Amino acid sequence: MPTTDVTKQAWIDKYAERILNVWLNLKSPLGVDGRYSKLVKDQLDEYFDDPLKRGLIETTYKN
Length: 63
Known about the structure:
Distance between the termini: 15 Å
Radius of gyration: 12 Å
Number of strands: 0
Strand content: under 5%
Largest sheet: none
């Protein structure tokens, strides 16, 4: 169940960092483009207000 006691920007920052860390830890020979961070944050901005998508992100990227 999505948490409601966090600000939108704090939630975006938290999960963007977790998502990017997953990609960086894959040690792919291709790496991650620096612009990917902006794309992830833009998508998370949309997901925050959708309980289903927000819950999916929170469940998938637990720490």
